[in-house]
UniProtKB/TrEMBL annotation:
Residues passing through the membrane, by range: 54-73, 93-114, 126-145, 165-189, 201-223, 248-270, 342-363, 413-433, 440-462, 474-495, 507-530, 536-557
GO cellular component, one term: membrane
Species whose genome carries this gene: Gnomoniopsis smithogilvyi
Region Disordered: start-end pairs: 575-630
Protein's name according to its UniProt entry: Major facilitator superfamily (MFS) profile domain-containing protein
InterPro entries with a match to the protein in the record: MFS_dom, MFS_sugar_transport-like, MFS_trans_sf, Sugar_transporter_CS
GO MF annotation, one: transmembrane transporter activity
Keywords tagged on the record: Membrane, Transmembrane, Transmembrane helix
């Protein structure tokens, strides 16, 4: 306990120290009946003064890490699964394809449902729900089995089918993973300060690549640990390796429960996002209270009553009352099809996400069969095994040992896919405020097109000349790096920035779901093509026009950043108040909640200065003597406030 509050009689009262501090006293005087813009100004001032909030980052990143871990864990276990439980005719003879597709379909449903539900019921109600689904589904996966087995004249009979169980549990797992996408993005975007928003969103998405590397590394470690206890180096037809490998895949998937449980605990402690209260619930008091609970370093500052609203704002505010459930959809449709034509923005980001996932999933970096093509050396490995088991991706190796196959698979995943993607994600975190989002996105799409041309041509040529595919392996690793530097990260970040608070979850869920629809389509195509060099090379070349089209489309995305010139300097908020009220009177301090300052800034002539953060007046910029106005590549860009990128629409009075 700490003594840090004083009551009206001067006595100290105890208050428990916590990450999120209760600040009810500071906001009791705030009124609720103010326009959306006035409420958002209050929240924006406090949040933007807080910088990069690591507590918020850990809450969002832990959930994204946990869900991504479960996703990649279920993808890499197919080799082990097929070794212990030969699929034969299970799931129509396409067990791997069906399990992947059912997971993706679950992801689509999760994105759509949870994204929309976050807008209608609030973000707080869903914190941890999606991770609970992931935990339940993970328990189901690791406990799936064929049940009781008995021998009959026609062979072994089982009381259950493990692949039928896995279909159900992986569809539920996909739902939880899909639900995590909009929630992690919304939590981060609505809690982050304006300038740290891009960095924090990119850092959260980096957790997907980190999870992938953890899965591959842990699966390799579990294999090595198990090999010391069980003889997995013996003939693959014996039962001892089967026992060991069955443990390997169950442990690999089951470990994902640990980060998910930790993430749930963290999710349940963070308050509702202030922008949800300000923009959707129209409750300024709760919005500011929750903001101060997280950014509690501002508690010592005053939170004053907002400036009176204008007649027009009051008319709009009075029309913000409760709406019937179906009116939300009418308003959303009007917003999409109104004068601003927001449906174009939604369609554009959805199309970009779909085209990106078609190419990314088409590269098959999570499929051992396609990575085996890159490792194949036609000059040395000319054999083709007629009875190659489904768990052996190396078709030229006619005497495979399961230990060697699993070890080689993990190493290929790490060096070609996982490690480059982590490095690319780190590069995205460093670059996201150095370059305009859409410019960097377009540039990386063009670079991907070039790399696809090199990789595709190299595969075709080396297959004809019976040469090694070393060049293609290197290019594949670079592709993994560039995808996470560009499209994977930037589309995720941009999709949550360009829509207003009231529709942010729904529209983000639609865009993300369209991306997974592209993944569903390309997976079917990949499954029905021959896994050989020429086939993969042609597939890569087909993706080139899609990536070039994506580069062109990227230029039409809304602008979410603005440059700063070297001849512009920021004036602190405290100095602004002194400048406008009484320049000769020092010590005149502006409170966090004051909005009159922003109004005065807007009333003054705008010649010779530019807003640094947003139209909310976070800092006034004054001109210095002209030196150099050249923009250089290392200059940081300023992010626009979410409310400036996509303001909450005013309710149509005709409804």
């Amino acid at each position: 306990m700490v003594l840090d509050e004083t009551d009206v009689q001067g006595r100290k009262t105890p208050r428990r120290r916590s990450i999120w501090v209760d600040v009810g006293r500071e906001v009791k005087h705030l009124e609720i009946d103010y326009s959306v813009r006035e409420r958002e100004k209050q929240v924006s001032r406090i949040v933007d003064d807080g910088g990069f909030k690591f507590a918020v980052f850990f809450v969002a990143a832990s959930g994204f890490l946990a869900s991504s871990f479960s996703l990649f864990a279920t993808n890499v276990i197919n080799t082990s699964l097929f070794f212990v439980y030969p699929p034969a005719d299970s799931l129509g003879g396409h067990a791997s394809l069906v399990l992947d597709e059912i997971t993706l379909v679950g992801t689509i449903v999760g994105m759509l449902f949870m994204g929309h539900f976050a807008d209608r019921a609030g973000r707080k109600r869903l914190y941890g729900v999606e991770l609970a689904v992931v935990i339940v589904a993970t328990f189901g996966v690791i406990q799936a089995s064929d049940g009781l087995m008995v021998q009959s004249s026609t062979g072994p009979l089982h009381s259950m089918d493990i692949y039928s169980w896995l279909m159900w549990w992986r569809s539920l797992l996909g739902f939880g993973i899909g639900a995590e996408y909009p929630l992690s993005a919304i939590i981060t975007a609505e809690w982050a300060s304006t300038q740290s928003r891009g960095t924090m969103l990119a850092a959260v998405f980096l957790m997907q690549s980190v999870a992938r590397l953890l899965v591959d590394g842990l699966s390799l470690g579990i294999l090595e640990a198990t090999s010391h206890r069980w003889n997995v180096h013996s003939d693959s037809e014996s039962e001892m390796p089967m026992l060991a490998v069955d443990q390997v895949w169950r442990w690999t998937v089951g470990i994902g429960i640990i980060p998910a449980a930790i993430a749930i605990i963290m999710r349940l402690t963070i308050p509702e996002t202030p922008r949800y209260y300000a923009g959707i619930m129209k409750d300024l008091r709760k919005a500011v209270k929750n903001t101060l609970m997280v950014y509690h370093k501002n508690i010592s500052e005053k939170v004053s009553k907002p400036a009176p609203i204008t007649v027009e704002e009051r008319q709009n505010s009075s029309d913000e009352g409760e709406v019937y459930w179906y009116e939300w959809y009418i308003l959303a449709w009007q917003y999409l099809t109104g004068e601003t034509k927001v449906w174009r923005t939604l369609g554009l980001i959805s199309l970009l996400w779909a085209l990106m996932d078609v190419c990314f999933y088409g590269l098959s970096m999570d499929l051992s069969n396609d990575l085996a093509i890159l490792a194949h050396d036609p000059a040395k490995d000319k054999a083709v095994c007629p009875n190659n088991p489904p768990w052996n991706p190396d078709w030229w190796n006619c005497s495979p040992l399961i230990y060697n196959v699993l070890k080689v698979n993990s190493e290929r995943f790490i060096w070609i896919a996982s490690l480059p993607s982590v490095i690319g994600g780190i590069a995205a975190v460093l670059a996201i405020n150095r370059f305009r989002r859409r410019h960097l996105l377009a540039a990386t799409f063009i670079l991907i097109s070039f790399l696809l041309a090199v990789a595709g041509a190299s595969l075709i040529v080396t297959a004809e000349t019976s040469q090694s595919h070393l060049i293609t392996e290197v290019v594949y690793a670079i592709l993994s790096f560039v995808f996470n530097l560009g499209p994977n990260t930037l589309i995720f970040v941009t999709a949550v920035e360009i829509f207003p608070t009231i529709y942010r979850g729904t529209f983000f869920g639609i865009a993300g779901a369209m991306g997974k629809v592209g993944a569903v389509v390309i997976r079917v195509v990949v499954a029905h093509t021959v896994s050989r060099e020429a086939s993969l090379g042609i597939r890569l070349l087909v993706f080139i026009p899609l990536m070039l089209a994506s580069a062109v489309l990227s230029w039409n995305l809304p602008e979410v950043q603005m440059p700063t010139s070297s001849n512009i300097k920021e004036v602190p908020v405290e100095e602004q108040q002194q400048d406008f009220d009484n320049p000769a009177a020092p010590g005149n301090e502006e409170s966090v909640g004051s909005i009159q300052q922003g109004e005065r800034l807007n009333d003054r002539p705008q010649v010779g200065r530019r807003s640094s953060e947003s139209s909310f007046g976070e800092a006034r910029l004054q001109p210095e003597p002209q030196t150099s106005a050249k923009f250089h590549i290392l200059q940081r860009l300023k992010n626009k406030a979410l409310e400036d990128i996509a303001p909450n629409p005013v309710r149509d009075h005709r409804i």
